[in-house]
Write a structure and sequence with these properties.
The chain is α+β, with helices and mostly antiparallel strands. 31% of the residues lie in helices and 12% in strands. Helix 2 runs antiparallel to helix 3, helix 2 packs parallel to helix 5 and helix 3 runs antiparallel to helix 5.
């Protein structure tokens, strides 16, 4: 069937009669009716096929979730042709879910939506208002012809399938990491979790990379030493030989400190920190509280420590207070003491979590930290 009722491109030109069409016979073949146009049973069958595709899409998403939750990545029995079964399952089921939605929509358009041939005459690039109105009317007619209002089963099954597929990425938020409670519950090595490090009472401060202990009398005014706890260099003699592998690397990344010596009178101790320094020697976490960059750019006259990533600046003479930049929290301070041989040791672990702030922190102010265990 030909639809030659589109607006006349010569409309508005006084020299051309409005009733004259540029092409009286565009040469369209005679319209062929589809089985679904003339057979109600075929129409219902097509509708059931479409709904079935949308429902199978939902089943595939459920299977996707099941694979994501249950597949044990790395085990021999969870491989397919040398590929991880988790990846294969996730890809296959999510791909099928999207494919079935697309196939259902195509089937809907081919068998149930309006199937009338149309001819649109060429017209000037700038369409007149009448043409624009006619276009909007055609769009509205197409919406009505799609039957989306008359076929609630097809419509609702499509919305359900698309909605379930759209929700599937939310499940992947689990890969962002475990919560603080989960980390603490699953940890079985010293200093595990977000709120603790491997530092403990009477543990020696040693130089990073070489592991030699730091003697307080060896430090001069203005010196800065990158240091670690003695446990980072495990030996049978110091009793930390069981700390190894991933646990050792995690402990090292969290426990890194900078040790600085300044004039004792320059130090402004925070509440409960009167005995946290040793003759002007203070120690702070090396991890910036903004996004966790390692910092050691020290300016000895101002006692400021600068993070090279985003220029957060901390005052080491004033409890690691933020004086500039995006960091929202002071540097955690490690309470220090000396042993019988004059080497620097920790009075306790940090009294607050090190590194960037996170939503499960109980306190952010110096006054809420409490006094170190002496």
């Amino acid at each position: 069937m030909s639809d030659l009722t589109s607006p006349d491109p010569h409309d508005g030109h006084p020299d051309t009669p409005a009733s004259v069409e540029p092409v009286t016979d565009p040469g369209l073949p005679e319209h062929t009716w589809r089985p679904t146009d003339v057979d109600e049973k075929a129409e219902k069958r097509a509708e059931r096929q479409i709904v079935g595709m949308f429902m199978l899409s939902i089943v595939c998403v459920i299977a996707f979730i099941a694979v994501y939750v249950t597949a044990n990545v790395g085990d021999d029995w969870t491989t397919i042709l040398g590929l991880g079964a988790s990846n294969v399952g996730l890809g296959v089921f999510l791909g099928l879910a999207l494919l079935l939605i697309g196939a259902g929509i195509i089937q809907w358009a081919r068998k149930l939506m309006s199937d009338h041939e149309m001819v649109e005459m060429r017209h000037a690039i700038a369409s007149p208002e009448e043409d624009r109105a006619a276009t909007l009317a055609a769009l509205q007619a197409g919406l009505e012809d799609s039957g989306i209002g008359r076929r609630p089963l097809v419509r609702n099954s499509l919305f359900a399938a698309v909605g379930v597929v759209a929700l599937s990425p939310i499940l992947m938020l689990r890969d962002l990491g475990e919560t603080n409670a989960q980390v603490t519950a699953n940890a079985d090595y010293p200093g595990a979790g977000l709120e603790h490090t491997v530092w403990e009472k009477n543990m020696r401060v040693v130089r990073d990379a070489v592991g030699t202990p730091v003697k307080a009398s060896d430090l001069q005014i203005g010196d800065l030493v990158n240091a670690q706890p003695e446990a980072i260099f495990p030996t049978k003699e110091n009793g930390y030989e069981d700390l190894e592998g991933a646990a050792l690397q995690i402990a090292k990344s969290k426990a890194a400190i900078v040790v600085v010596r300044m004039e004792p009178e320059d130090i402004i101790p925070g509440e409960g920190r009167d005995n946290w320094s040793v003759d002007g020697i203070v120690a702070y976490s090396k991890i910036c509280t903004h996004v966790g960059c390692p910092i050691s750019l020290y300016e000895r006259t101002t006692h400021h420590l600068l993070c090279p990533c985003h220029q957060s600046t901390f005052d080491l003479a004033d409890s690691g207070r933020v004086v500039f930049g995006p960091a929202g929290r002071h540097l955690p301070q490690l309470p220090l003491d000396v042993d019988d041989e004059g080497y620097l040791i920790a009075r306790s672990d940090f009294t607050e979590p090190v590194g960037p702030s996170y939503w499960e922190r109980d306190s952010k102010d110096i006054g809420d930290q409490g006094e170190a265990d002496v």
